[in-house]
Amino acid sequence: MKPKKIPMRTCVACRTSRPKRELIRIVRTPQGAVTIDSRGKMSGRGAYICRTNACFDQALKSKRLEGALDVILQSEVIEQLRQLVEKENVSG
Fold first, then answer.
1. Which of 31, 48, 53, 82 lies at a 20 to 30 A Cα distance from 61?
2. Which domain does 16 fall in, by range?
3. Is there a domain that residue 62 lies in?
């Protein structure tokens, strides 16, 4: 039996390729809402970032997150994402 293939994804901030489970998926839903997809199964355009505040800040500063999601992030959405990323850091 061959070993199960581990899906790899690239962080939009640091460009490091890691197993999908180690990253946080941020998704823009078909309705245009931006949220964190903790299960990795939501439909919509997704972007992955490492579970660090440094990568989150880098992705925002360089506008790579906005580019990957093809959306302009509002300040309240950024604040919600920051809280969710910090919560992921604690639990993850």
1. 31
2. 8-91
3. yes
Q: For residue 76, what are its two tokens?
A: 């309240």
Contacts of residue 9, Cβ cutoff 8 Å, sequence gap at least 6: 17, 18, 19, 20, 23, 25, 48
Contact 71, 28 (CB under 8 A): yes
How many independent structural domains does the chain possess?
1
Residue written as tokens 């245009």? 32
pTM (2 decimals)?
0.86
- The single-letter code of the amino acid at 28 is R
Residue range 14-34, pLDDT digits in tens: 999 999 999 999 999 999 999
Rounded to 5°, the CA angle 59-17-27 comes to 50
Q: What is the pLDDT of residue 18?
A: 96
